[in-house]
Every structure is written in C-alpha cells, then in structure tokens.
Amino acid sequence: MNKLFTTLFALAVASATGGAFAQASAPAAKPAAAAPKAAAPAGAKSMEAKIAMCIGCHGIKGYQSSFPEVHKVPMISGQTAKYIVAALNAYKNGDRKHPTMRGIAGSLSDADMNDIANFYAAQATKAADSPAAPEGKVAELYAKGNCAACHGKNLSTPIDPSYPKIGGQHADYLFVALKSYKQDNNHAVGRSNGVMGAIAKQFSTAELKALANYVSTLDGELSVHPEPKFR
Ligand code: HEC
Ligand code: HEC
Question: Which atom of ligand 2 is nearest to the CA of 90?
C-alpha cells in the first residue's frame, strides 16, 4: 500500500512537472493562457497539480481497484460538489475506511477539496428526463428503500447537495459501496453513515446487488472524463 502510494505520488509529481514544462515550451501563439498562471499567488497550486493525483484512477475509463474486491473506481465527473467534499472529509476523518482514499484525502487541505470538487462537478452531463422504472422484485426493493426520495429523479437530482448522484454509476462500485454501509468492526472496510447505514441494513447482500445493477442502468450525469492535456 505504501509502495503504491509512493508510486502514485511520484507519478503525480511527474505529471505536474510535465504539465508545467508543456506550458513553458508552448508556442507563443497563446500568451494569454500563461499570463494568469504567472500572476497566481506564490505557493498556490494549479488545478493540474491538484488533480494530478486523481486522474491516474478516476480519469481512466474502466480503471479497476482490487480492494476489497475487484470493481471499477467510482465516476466522480459530474458528481455534486458538496458531496465530493463530504466524501473526502469522511475518508480524512475515518468515517469511510478505504485505506487508499484515506491516505489521499488526508493529504488535501479544505481549499484543495473545494477546488477539486468544483472542477469535477462542472463536468456533469445532462440526465435523461424519464427514468426507466424498476420492474418485478427490484421494484419492491426500490419502493422499500425509498431511494428516489433522497437521490431524486433518475437518482441523479439529490434533494440535498451533500447527497450523491448515483444513477448510471458503475454497478460493481455501487454494490461495494452499499455493502460497506452494512460493514461494522472492520478496520479497512466500511462507512459509518447513519442515513445509508439504516437503509442498507434492511437488505440482504443479494438484494443490494439487484439494486446496484438496476441503479447502474439509469441514464445519469456521471462520467469518466480523461484529462489528456494534464498528462
Ligand atoms: C489508487 C486509485 C485512486 C486514486 C489515485 C484516487 N482515488 Fe478516489 N477512489 C478510489 C477508489 C477505489 C474509491 C472507492 C473507495 C470506497 O470504496 O469507498 C474512491 C472514491 C473516491 C470518492 C468517493 C466517490 C463516491 O461516489 O462516493 C471521491 C470523491 C474520490 N475518490 C476523489 C478522489 C480525488 C479527488 C482524488 C485525487 C486527489 C482521488 N480520488 C484519487 C481510487 C482512487
Ligand atoms: C433518507 C435519504 C436516503 C435514502 C432514502 C437513500 N439514500 Fe442512498 N445515500 C444517502 C446519503 C446521505 C448518502 C451519502 C452517505 C455518505 O456520505 O457516505 C447516500 C449514499 C448512497 C450510496 C453511495 C454512493 C457513492 O457514490 O458512494 C449508494 C450506492 C446509495 N446511497 C444507494 C441508495 C439506494 C439503492 C437507496 C434505496 C434502496 C438509497 N440509497 C436510499 C441518502 C439516502
């Protein structure tokens, strides 16, 4: 884990340096773009530097994590800004136990979190107007959990900005996330959130999987947004 983190950090530094070099050696045709950068207060990090550490996982289509089981990393482009900040703080303070994200969030200041959250939130795509209604057994589970009451239409218009958009999120990630709200007493896996904990605990693992599969089929506002210009 430490080695992975060191490698990631090295990558982050390398790509940040690469970005700066590309900027410095860019043809003189675009001087306007460079000017505001030079005027930034000393010590202020560029947006490229702030997200350099994120794009190696969240900016690659289909990128998978193998912990605690193999699943795609969550899409964060298009997610609500307040939720991104809330999630990062939950990793930082230990309410969310995922070790890698804890290490990463712990290195971010409040200002970094806000800037990063606004950057990713601005990448939202428009969700479809009419949700595909759940059918059969899933319709029962969906009604029992009252999912749309908080996550909104298409599960993409949450009633509170600190709640996540989940429509169209990767099914395997949704399943891992839902199970984590049921997990107590494990030092590396679990999320202590009163609201989702109470909901997830009403369902069996198989039922959570069925819900995750359905939620992933909705037309949502989340996407993976590669950042080739930052590499
Ligand atoms: C090594 C790969 C990796 C890197 C690098 C990484 N993440 Fe993550 N991120 C993950 C994984 C895996 C999860 C899911 C963790 C869990 O199960 O709670 C996650 C979860 C998140 C979440 C919660 C998403 C949700 O829907 O609840 C946010 C927000 C997030 N990451 C932001 C970031 C930011 C910002 C950065 C860069 C500063 C970053 N991540 C760097 C792998 C990574
Ligand atoms: C009373 C409001 C409420 C209801 C009802 C609700 N949720 Fe949530 N949900 C939340 C909140 C708040 C969070 C953020 C929790 C956190 O910070 O970890 C959340 C988080 C989630 C996440 C994690 C998202 C991510 O990106 O990691 C999933 C998945 C989820 N909910 C699915 C569901 C499903 C499926 C249902 C219906 C069975 C449901 N929720 C019903 C409020 C609700």
Answer: 17
